[in-house]
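Input sequence (306 aa), recorded before submission:
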Amino acid sequence: MAGAVEVTCYTDPGCSWAWGTEPKLRKLTFEFGEGLAWSYVMGGLVGNMEVYASRLCREDGGARLAAYWREVAAHTGMPTPVALSRAYRSTDPACRAVKAAQQQEEEVALRVLRRLRESIFVLSRPTDNGEEILEAVRGVPRLDLGRLACDLEDSQVEQAYRQDWEETRRPNEYTMALDDDSRPGAGKARLTEGHWRYVFPTVIFQGPEGERTAPGWQPYEAYLAAIEAVVPGTSATRLPPPEPRQLLDQYGSAATKEIEVVCEMDRQAALDAMEALEKEGVVVGWRVGEEVLWMLPAEAQSRGLD
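Predicted structure, token format:
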């Protein structure tokens, strides 16, 4: 059963819809475990903000982007910045950092991807240059920070990212033919900076019975249906939800919405459980508006958030 379903996730550290989908993807990981073989493709949301959306490069660009992210958060329930001093200039450097971390270890790269997202959407810190990236990922378990700093400019890393970038810009016929532009987080392939590409996240499931694509903002049931379609009977292997502490032990951090979705708790129950753990000193809560990012103490300390 191990890796029976191949899952390819096209994503970007700076995409608010991808950030908002984290609870569902984490739930898939817990429910199916080794039954899913994941690969992550860094798609490059913004190459040059002057070309992508020049209005976001103006003095009020940070406020404009924060306002859009709040609209997205109204659908996703994930934390979003109360204010932004500026919009990021490009997401290419953050994507390149994930590819550089993959040179060390895939699990390390996923931690780096998560840290970059939290830097952007929780701490309101754009990660569009080497200095900010290195500060964001400092303390990631098993990450060789010095090597990462060197690899950010490595030609092999640039080539690996370029391959991801190009793959993202070969969207399949399904996403090109979609007509769902009117719905939030639409899945139709987008034309940006002169190229058609997958929207983020786009998740493609492959198995003995073929391929299914779940593009853009999707209900959890769409992922389950895709998995069942490519490997019939897989739904019967789903594992029970973890306790909140198990989720934190696995990832080091989790937003309240992730506790709700992964652990199958309503919002108040999730908050009560996490606040109880906070009082015991088991977790640290970093509050962003009405939302909270919960961290293990060691995770918070490594980031100066304790």
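Checked by second reader. The mean pLDDT is 96.
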